[in-house]
Amino acid sequence: MKNTITKISLVCLAILSAAYNLRAQDTTGERKWWKEAVVYQVYPRSFKDSDGDGIGDLKGILSKLDYIQSLGVDVIWLNPIFSSPNADNGYDISDYRNIMKDFGTMQDFDVLLKAMHQRKLKLVLDLVANHSSNEHYWFKQASSSRTNPYRNYYHWWNAEKGKPPFRPGAFEVDGSGWHFDSLTNAYYLHSFSYKQPDLNWENPQLRQEIYSMMRFWFDKGIDGFRMDVIPYISKDTSFPVVTQQLLDEKYEGGWDKYFAGGPGLHQYLKEMNSEVLSKYDGMSVAEGVGVTTKTAHNFVDADRHELNMLYHYEGINFGYVPGKFKVMDPKGYSLVEFKNIYTKWDSIFEQKGWGTIYLGNHDQPRMVSRWGNDSPQWRVRSSKLLTTFILTMRGTPYYYSGDELGMSNIKFDKIEDYNDIESISMYEQIKNRGGDTKAFIEAQKVSARDNGRTPFQWDSTRYAGFSTAAPWLKVNPEYTYVNVAAEEKDTASCLNYFRKLIRLRKTNLALVYGKYTLLDRNNAAIYAYTRTWGKEKILVLLNFSKKAVLWPIPAGIQPGTRLLINNYNSLQRQKNAIVLQPYQAVLINLL
Ligand code: TEU
170 in ligand 1 pocket by Cβ < 6 Å? Predict the structure, then answer.
């Protein structure tokens, strides 16, 4: 009897789970936890300081886990927390198996991870494997002599061959990606600053070191990795001359595309998958620098056995004046182009693979300043609009901490206020060539990375409740009214709106898996789309402009009367049109 019941339950379970997967297979393949998750990115340096040194730390994050849990997010991605001299805030690692002193100890880490799991929060760490710090033991050894066993962990060009062919070094004042090392009379390669020498993935021993380190963290119980500039890891080690003409003809004019196509890249990612990723139920996401819609599938299709997801740069790099360093077009950006980019990226993952969606992170200015309107009149409305966009698109949302409060750019007006190696080196470069440093500072108010790195705003006390000491980077003066304490009390706050939207996404899987269809493509003010999944049908309407706009309902679209969310108190409807207020965002059921 007992046996028969067990058998019947097993059959029922099998039928149920098949049905569950079938529904999800409408458009996107198998259901996975990381497809349904909302990732919340925490910049540890700026989240919460527990020991009064002005720098955020792991115990600080621990003390705020209840807050993070209250948001309804599923995964926390922490920017690098490993030992580092901090030339690039942790993206220059000197020991991959230890915690940065500023952030605490390994014991703090273990406690934090346990506390996260107790709250059903998953942890994703940053894997910085394209380069290490020049203060890493491997590099110290490698640079000590040409015959050192670690020499081949990095890329060298012996000076007797003459100067190496140009490669860019992102954070260098002279723009060069080669640094001369007089002790061994050779240049070494660094795609970022000279403090970040590129690791030589062509060396199998180096690859094994990285895999072993990844297993070390997985065995501790982490739930995945965000992989820093992972498309860059493989290089043509003959270092051929690369001309602008070649870049234009084969790489859409950009070094990023060239670097993202190294000869061994996919072989190494497959190897990493079989040696590490396939052995754990973790998630992996590539920072997709240089990845295009043509190459994306090679990274993320399940049958490739490489990575789960990537986040592309096309959405975030657009809107700048071509040929200038992160100068925003004074006319603003074209919503039609914005829609085209996100629609194109959605469509490539319609049948295969899986996408992501984000508007801010530690490398970007605050999303409301860049993509919304941070004037006092529209900051709250437009923040909510952007949050609505992120949480109603298909693909896993990556949401940057502070955006849920509607934090905006700090807009420093002197270089001395900046901490970021990118801003400081670019300033020097412009100064050295007699360029317009004033114009640069103006442009940085819109685009600098430090805008997104100012301390998190907890309350209206001194230093925004982030620390008891002056923080490593100035607090945005808006903290007196943009902060958690104030927004908790306000039912109409950005914070409570974010929570509501997350609940909505969790209870309407159409928002996760549903087919995305763009409506009214050429409308320059309204971003309208539907999400449909079986019987669930939702219309998303977003007015990206600061004017009220009459939106004629297209033929074949029948909005119901149920408003799932609205960032205004009401919605003005006419017989065949809807009037959207400035920056209004609504979700309506469709008949
Ligand atoms: O960013 C990769 C990268 O290409 C950056 O230069 C990015 O384009 C730039 O920040 C945009 O302004 C990753 C990390 O996310 C970044 O924080 C690091 O500085 C960089 O790698 C080096 O590790």
Answer: yes
